[in-house]
């Protein structure tokens, strides 16, 4: 199966670079660092580093407390942080400010993986969440480089897909030294695919700290919002903005300001175009000036400021959940004490979403019409918003600690590693 998988990679490689060029039409950073995708990662001659792979923005943010802990407690080890997307790389650059070595992980074709490992020479490989790369895992096993799969999660939808190729993913999972799963349900699904030595440690995203300037940025945003009641649509996905505009701008709430922060920066201009096409008066984060009385929408076209938006909002819809995208991370909103609305599709964060609803920190709606009714109700009920806010901060605080448990697993593995592995 792995030979067939590798053959598919070989045939796909030319088209992957055409895909990168196509993506670069909207996000020019896809044109940069192409040699790294072919295995030409950083050539390191010093003591062997710890490799941490965080595919994109969410995984990079989740890795932040662990990376900072490793830098503090293992100063003799360099950290190499690999990514797949330019936005993940930009997030790592913003979070760690040159304290880590960044690179793209190569495509999972054996010669590219071998070259990458020969140049980086990692002491161990830590993979965030459930990125399963059979050739990378096999190459690490051949070189006695332990692989740890941490903050691992697996939805039922993903598990069904993996079961179709279990002869490929099963040996890859079996080769992993330690799997640190978010929940018992995730652990059971991973074990059914062939994962071994699985421990349930919780979700590291609860341990993510807000940027130091969050309070200042939130205060500046509130000034720009000019005292309006702010309903934040956070991390929205393609197709959600239109339905939210239909439902919320028609509410008879003159002080309501809809703040839209799309999930992907390459969609900022698409959403701006949608607002212009509909004749909606809107302001942009990237432009100067405050919101006026006739402004209906504020477009959050900036990166790395979602914590500030949550801190400045009166309530928030967490995107990707009205349409079947699986939902985005609601933990950051809960930690900020922002009342949360979510749709029916939250399988990416199933347990966190259920717990948040059960604790009263979040409210689930069936569709956009019900969301509009919930916004109207919460707009009129400050006491209910305050109760949801308090429940959110308590929910976030109670679930912290996963990073420390993961660090203990990494430290144990490091102690067992031979420096000449």
| Share of helical residues | 40-55%
So what's the overall shape?
globular
Number of strands: 14
Number of helices: 18
**Beta-strand proportion:** 5-15%
Q: Overall pLDDT, averaged?
A: 93
Instruction: Tell me the radius of gyration.
Output: 22 Å
* Alpha carbon gap, first and last residue: 27 Å
Contiguous runs where pLDDT drops below 50 for at least 5 residues: none
Q: CATH topology of the largest domain, anyone?
A: Rossmann fold
Please outline what is shown here.
With 421 residues, the protein is α/β, with parallel strands linked by helices.
Provide structural commentary.
The chain has 421 residues and is α/β, with parallel strands linked by helices. The protein folds into two domains: 217 residues, Rossmann fold; 185 residues, Glycogen Phosphorylase B (Rossmann fold, 3-Layer(aba) Sandwich). Helices cover 47% and strands 15% of the residues. The chain has 18 helices and 14 strands. The strands form two sheets. A seven-stranded parallel β-sheet has the order 3-2-1-4-5-6-7, with helices on both faces. It has a seven-stranded parallel β-sheet with strand order 10-11-9-8-12-13-14, sandwiched between helices. Strand 2, helix 4 and strand 3 form a beta-alpha-beta unit. Helix 10 packs across helix 13 and helix 11 packs across helix 16. The model has no long low-confidence stretch (mean pLDDT 93).
């Amino acid at each position: 199966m792995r030979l067939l998988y590798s053959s598919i990679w070989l045939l796909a490689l030319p088209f992957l670079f055409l895909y990168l060029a196509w993506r670069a039409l909207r996000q020019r950073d896809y044109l940069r660092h192409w040699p790294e995708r072919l295995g030409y990662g950083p050539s390191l001659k010093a003591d062997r580093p710890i490799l941490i792979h965080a595919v994109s923005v969410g995984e990079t943010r989740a890795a932040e407390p662990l990376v900072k802990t490793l830098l503090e407690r293992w100063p003799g080890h360099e950290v190499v942080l690999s990514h797949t997307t330019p936005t993940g790389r930009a997030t790592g650059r913003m979070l760690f400010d040159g304290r880590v070595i960044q690179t793209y992980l190569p495509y999972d074709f054996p010669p590219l993986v071998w070259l990458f490992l020969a140049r980086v020479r990692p002491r161990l490989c830590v993979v965030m969440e459930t990125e399963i790369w059979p050739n990378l895992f096999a190459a690490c096993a051949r070189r006695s480089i332990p692989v740890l799969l941490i903050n691992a999660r697996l939805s039922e939808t993903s598990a069904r897909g993996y079961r179709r190729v279990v002869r490929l993913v099963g040996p890859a999972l079996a080769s992993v030294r330690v799997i640190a799963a978010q929940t018992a349900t995730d652990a059971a699904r991973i074990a059914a695919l062939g994962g071994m030595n699985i421990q349930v440690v919780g979700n590291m995203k609860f341990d993510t700290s807000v940027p130091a300037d969050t309070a200042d940025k939130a205060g500046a945003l509130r000034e720009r919002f000019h005292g309006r009641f702010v309903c934040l649509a956070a991390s929205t996905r393609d197709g959600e903005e239109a339905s939210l505009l239909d439902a919320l701008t028609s509410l008879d709430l003159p002080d309501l300001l809809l703040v839209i922060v799309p999930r992907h920066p390459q969609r900022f201009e698409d959403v701006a175009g949608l607002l212009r096409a509909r004749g909606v008066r809107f302001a942009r984060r990237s432009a100067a000036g405050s919101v006026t009385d006739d402004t209906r929408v504020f477009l959050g076209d900036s990166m790395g400021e979602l914590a500030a938006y949550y801190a400045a909002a009166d309530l928030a819809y967490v995107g990707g959940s009205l349409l079947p995208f699986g939902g985005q991370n609601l933990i950051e909103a809960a930690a900020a004490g922002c009342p949360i609305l979510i749709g029916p599709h939250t399988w990416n964060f199933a347990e966190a979403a259920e717990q948040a609803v059960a604790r009263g920190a979040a409210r689930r709606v069936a569709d956009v019409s019900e969301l509009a009714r919930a916004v109207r109700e919460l707009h009129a009920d400050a006491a209910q918003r305050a109760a949801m806010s308090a429940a959110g901060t308590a929910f976030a605080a109670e679930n912290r600690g996963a990073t420390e448990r993961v660090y203990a697993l990494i430290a144990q593995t490091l102690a067992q590693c031979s420096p000449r592995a």
